[in-house]
């Protein structure tokens, strides 16, 4: 438990962040050949960690409100078309995000199984 918030609320927030990141990566890949397109990225984990650190006891409502920030890093080299999307980078980020998403789901599944076991024992 994080304060009066269950781990379920924290994991749900993480899932939302990873889903947003996957959507942004998909958009980057869709714009691979779009002239002048600059890639986007997501800031989420820092906002989640800051909420947990500063509040000490984030409630479910605060966690439900937390959103990732979509931004353009503008620090990657551009090609002749003014586009900075690199397929290798995006696929790497997608794999990382998918692994993170899978971990959140596995942890949620484990928590729900523990709850189910506790209820069966009652």
Describe this protein's structure.
The chain has helices spanning 7-30, 45-55, 60-65, 87-120; strands spanning 41-43, 69-71. With 122 residues, the protein is mostly helical. Helices cover 61% and strands 5% of the residues. The two termini are 21 Å apart. The protein has one domain. Helix 1 (7-30) packs antiparallel against helix 4. It has a two-stranded antiparallel sheet. It is elongated. It has four helices and two strands.
Tally of helical segments: 4
- Series of secondary-structure elements, N-terminal to C-terminal: HEHHEH
Mean pLDDT: 90
Poorly predicted ranges: none
Number of domains: 1
Largest sheet: 2 strands, antiparallel
Q: Kindly, what is the distance between the CA atoms of the first and last residues, rounded to a whole number of angstroms?
A: 21 Å
Q: What percentage of the residues does DSSP assign to strands (E)?
A: under 5%
Helix amount, in percent? 55-70%
Any idea what the radius of gyration is?
Answer: 18 Å
- In one word, what is the shape? elongated
Report the structural category.
mainly alpha
Number of strands: 2
């Amino acid at each position: 438990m994080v304060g009066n918030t269950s781990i379920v609320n924290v994991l749900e927030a993480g899932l939302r962040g990873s889903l947003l990141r996957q959507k942004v990566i998909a958009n980057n890949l869709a714009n691979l050949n779009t002239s002048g397109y600059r890639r986007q990225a997501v800031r989420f984990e820092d906002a989640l960690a800051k909420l947990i650190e500063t509040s000490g006891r984030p409630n479910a409502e605060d966690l439900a409100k937390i959103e990732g920030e979509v931004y353009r890093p503008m620090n990657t080299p551009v090609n002749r078309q003014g586009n900075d999307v690199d397929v290798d980078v995006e696929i790497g980020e997608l794999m990382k995000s998918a692994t993170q998403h899978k971990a959140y789901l596995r942890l949620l599944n484990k928590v729900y199984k523990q709850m189910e076991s506790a209820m069966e024992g009652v």
